[in-house]
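During the reporting period the student researcher (J.K.) took over the structure-prediction task from the postdoctoral fellow and processed the backlog of single-chain submissions. One of the processed entries is reproduced below for the supervisory committee.
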Amino acid sequence: MAEVKTRMPSALQVGPSTLVPRVGSIFLAVAVPSLLYAAFILALVAFPTLEAHVIYMHRLTLMRSVDALNTPELFGFMRNQVRPFTIPLPAPLSVGNISVSSLTAPPTSSSSSQAAATETLHAWHVLPLRRYSCHQEALVAEPAGLVDDVTTTHGFSLLRDDPCAIVVIHLHGASGTMASGLRPETYRALAAADPTHVHVLALDYRGYGLSSGSSSPCEGGLIADAVALARWAMDVAQVPPERIVVHAQSLGTAVAIGMVEYFATQQRPVEFGGLVLTAGMFDVASLMAEYRFNGVLRLMAPLDWLPAVLDWMRTKLRSTWRSGERLERVMAMLSRHHVELLHAQDDRVVSVAHVHRLFEAAVAGSVRSGAVAVLDGEVNVAVAGAEVDVGASGAVWEWKSERGLIRKRVLSVGEHDRLMILPATSCAVLDASMAAGWSGGESCDGRARC
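J.K. obtained the following structure tokens:
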């Protein structure tokens, strides 16, 4: 027995001298990350700049150099098919968490104000391919890149002087620039709705890309930027609002809804030809718990065990982007509307649940007179829209009224970003254009001659 005791395996000889270091190591392995994460959460609440960086990710350019934005040919476009230009940076709008009805109009653009502006928004004008092909010789002969006055360029005249031109204003999502990732392919897909008449305008919000903005992006600032681009299209390019379709993705959908609400609440309301929202969110508070950075890392996962902390953080948000409430209110104001909501079933960044809630909010606003019962935020299922069979591609629901159409498309595939370059998006833009009265028919047919 004595021999057995002397040969006892060392692993079983656990005493205070070995147990304490092991417990200490385990404690440190758990405590240090927990303290760091708690510090991150507190800093997120305490410092508005940090919140802005997390929500907008404007410093994450996703490209080697933002200077390339002045050379669109590096992104696969023909020479001068895309013209970079600038418009004055407007002051941020005094937007509350709910309404933008009391906002003051930002300044419009002109050649003189462009020259005088010290801070600017950087934008692109993408020509439709067939229009570019017909005028390629004149376009190629011009200097490439950013110009002091875009109104002197041949490409601008092709937009201003075409009575059949359709402008698609594209508002991109968080992170990157207007040329990051699949965004250049998105402009090509949008223009594919009609290669003769569909022009695309895109911009980088304040703090993104080459746009100015010494302060961090904010809700009122981004809406002001979108309003400024729309005013440029209407006042400088002289395109009437019924020939403007607003297209947006992810965070951009919240900006788009805020912009549409702004124009709808003016003394002389302005209504656009259509609103196409892809991969939109209902609001930031709903997105917080589920958001996955790059579709993988869920930032708030540790708070699954502390729901009270997550609820407390939601009350401290400065950028709330309550798109669902805004959309319902907007739909009640508009005299006519064509709204397309697109989402992919396999979206791992913003779940498909958001598009269902946005659709319900839009329908509820459209029939706010009481024709539809709204209980706990859900529209009565019996009248929430007729489902259209589209086979394996996904599902479509439509709500039709005398004022227009609200359509929800849930695609089987498309993820968060690839959805923008799929035919469904191009089709939605074309449908919105045609609903506004543009037919692309004989009077606006560019096939017979350039």
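The committee noted the following: Residues 61-283+320-444 form a domain with the Rossmann fold fold (CATH 3.40.50.1820).
J.K. will present the remaining backlog at the next meeting.
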